[in-house]
């Protein structure tokens, strides 16, 4: 896939950015064994990400003012009957069988464990859309894009299905898709909430690290509440941590630049509990642990693989105010990147050159976008949309089955992005990508090395 790469490789480019030098100086071998120890070893401070609680910037104040449902479509409605998510009967929790597939996404794992998605872990597009709407209030367009992308890049093109975990059983003579557990750099990216970067964990980016889980929850420890702003900070800090810890850190446009930070927002937007008093929702440690299959108390957590659940007596966001691709995902990414620019590192550089890599956005987009206008209006959404569209035929042209998958994905993108109008772009130029080592790193099953990191 042609994609914009945002990657820090050399000390030389880090020298332009003192905070990163700081992270690098903390870099040590990955030998920590307990949460408290790892988190001390890799501590990134508020100051490291440009946050002073006593003097937040205007963008940080705006970020902190966000509703749990997202800043562009805050939830204002509450109907207990409509928003209650059943965890009994057909939707009772069941641990996955040994043949059922589970992977790096707690939202999907929990939905499958409650029968909102197929319990065996293999999903069609229709199932994906219906199940995630029912369980979480994810919009049809967003579930449609995420599902179609999973089918096209990690799925089985014969049955047009995809796996929420590792590879599906082989169908006939053709290898089925790898599933999202093994989609490093395609779907799965570095800088996850609770999963280690693939490279520093022997390729395993789907198992939960209790250490990282504690690191994320730390932001909400004081008042037992997580919110959009706290998790935006957690992402910025984890970005420093990845850069400091992982020599193969790599941030392709879709996986690490879009999916990873969006997942932090997904926790708040789709795992919060909604009440008549707080139609916007709230999220505490209990719910966070339940969804992520974790027990214990900060900072000493234990992970129970495959046991991700939807809490009992839990109310999702209203169907009438769903989390969408444009207003939801991009709306929140823009707030987050504006408040904590380190999470999308164009370093405040106004000429379009990424401070870290020397990559020039302007060159990628034939002059259309630059670092100044990338986050204005719909530009970032357009940039991503156009970049992915341009890349599609390239990725898939070797396989005769791909036409259907490409068509499906194009259609889903078209639906989701129909509300925004993007300027015409002549071509994306990805020919000058520097040869970063993380770009070609591609772990394969069955490596399984849950570790604290
Ligand atoms: C078709 C829909 C979806 C797809 C294809 C999908 C895919 C993924 C993938 C590939 C990852 C790994 C990304 C990484 O490396 O960090 C991930 C992580 C995550 N997803 Fe999903 N996801 C979907 C829906 C959801 C929903 C509905 C929720 C919330 C209710 C959710 C919450 C999360 C969270 C919280 C993570 C981060 C996990 C961690 O780092 O510990 N996802 N998802
Ligand atoms: C969610 O909120 C409702 C009130 O609307 C409350 O009764 C319930 O206990 C809460 N659920 C969880 C999981 O905290």
UniProtKB/TrEMBL annotation:
Pfam family, any one: Peroxidase_2
Cofactor(s), names only, from the UniProt record: heme b
Molecular-function annotations in GO: metal ion binding; peroxidase activity
Lineage: superkingdom: Eukaryota
Span of the signal peptide: 1-16
Protein family according to the UniProt entry: Belongs to the chloroperoxidase family.
Protein name per Swiss-Prot or TrEMBL: Heme haloperoxidase family profile domain-containing protein
